[in-house]
């Protein structure tokens, strides 16, 4: 007995198949035995399906496609989980006043939002009050690479930089006119539900206006008091 050289050339004489519905015919592997390629090599012995167009299709094809789709989906979910786990800073954070401590005459953020931006950057938006107790809003877009990126909306700073220490920790500096005015650290808790921001700077009275600011560059050399604030934020 001879066998077809390919699944598309399977002769009618060997179609010992059973009908399965109206769309295809199923043939078991034992009906045909090994198929050869013409050079003496053998194709795997598997079950075959004959479609409406008369083409033969191995049952192995369907199983392989199912496995491939399953692996692809699993990879996508895994990749998403890894990416999310690597960015615990992302999201909306609300100040927990009861757990926070601020020195008099310093500004504070009551709401902070971290979100993805174009070009692999991160956009940080803050809302709160300035050192004078007036509403304040600022925006910063950049990378956590230690380089300075511009700040908008804050008259007491014009640049800020973030450096990634580890997956849950960021160090940052705030500048005005090229001078560092504030340094700080952001640490997200292991459970990802809260974060603690510590900042260090100088408070004082600006010589020209008599208003309290938290940025050292607004102070006269003989005035100002160093401070360290601790702000605790809860994930929203």
Provide a descriptive summary of the structure in words.
The protein is mainly beta and 236 residues long. The chain folds into two domains: 7-85, no CATH class; 91-235, Lipocalin. Helix content is 11%, strand content 43%. A hairpin with a 3-residue loop joins strand 1 (18-20) and strand 2. It is elongated and about 90 Å long. The termini are far apart.
Which structural category do the helix and sheet elements fall into?
A: mainly beta
Count the domains. 2
Share of helix, binned: 10-25%
Specify the overall morphology.
elongated
| Oligomeric state | single chain
Order of helices and strands: EEEEEEHEEEEEEEEEEE
Radius of gyration: 33 Å
Low-confidence stretches: 1-5, 11-16, 21-26, 28-43, 80-84, 205-222
**CATH fold descriptor of the largest domain:** Lipocalin
From the N-terminal CA to the C-terminal CA, the straight-line distance is 73 Å
Could you tell me the strand content as a percent range? 35-45%
CATH architecture of the largest domain: Beta Barrel
How many separate helices? Answer: 1
| Count of individual beta strands | 17
Mean pLDDT: 75
Q: Quick one: CATH class of the largest domain?
A: Mainly Beta
The largest pleated sheet is described as: 10 strands, antiparallel, barrel
How is the largest sheet built, in terms of strand order? 7-8-9-10-11-12-13-14-15-17
């Amino acid at each position: 007995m001879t066998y077809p050289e390919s699944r598309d050339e399977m002769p009618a004489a060997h179609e010992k198949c059973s009908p399965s519905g109206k769309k295809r015919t199923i043939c078991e592997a034992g009906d045909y035995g090994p198929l050869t390629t013409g050079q003496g090599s053998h194709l795997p012995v598997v079950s075959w399906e004959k479609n409406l167009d008369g083409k033969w299709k191995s049952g192995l094809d369907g199983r392989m496609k199912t496995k491939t789709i399953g692996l692809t989906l699993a990879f996508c979910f895994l990749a998403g989980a890894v990416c999310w786990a690597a960015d615990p800073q992302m999201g909306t954070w609300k100040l927990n006043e009861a757990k926070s401590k601020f020195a008099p005459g310093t500004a504070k953020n009551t709401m902070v939002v971290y979100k993805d931006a174009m070009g692999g950057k991160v956009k940080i938006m803050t809302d709160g009050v300035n050192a004078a107790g007036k509403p304040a809003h600022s925006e910063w877009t950049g990378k956590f690479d230690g380089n300075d990126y511009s700040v908008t909306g804050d008259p007491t700073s014009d640049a800020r930089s973030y450096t990634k220490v580890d997956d849950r920790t960021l160090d940052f500096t705030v500048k005005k006119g090229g001078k560092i005015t504030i340094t700080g650290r952001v640490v997200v808790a292991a459970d990802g539900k809260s974060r603690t921001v510590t900042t260090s700077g100088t408070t004082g009275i600006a010589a020209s206006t008599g208003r309290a600011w938290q940025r050292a560059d607004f102070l006269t050399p003989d005035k100002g008091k160093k401070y360290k604030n601790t702000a605790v934020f809860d994930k929203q």
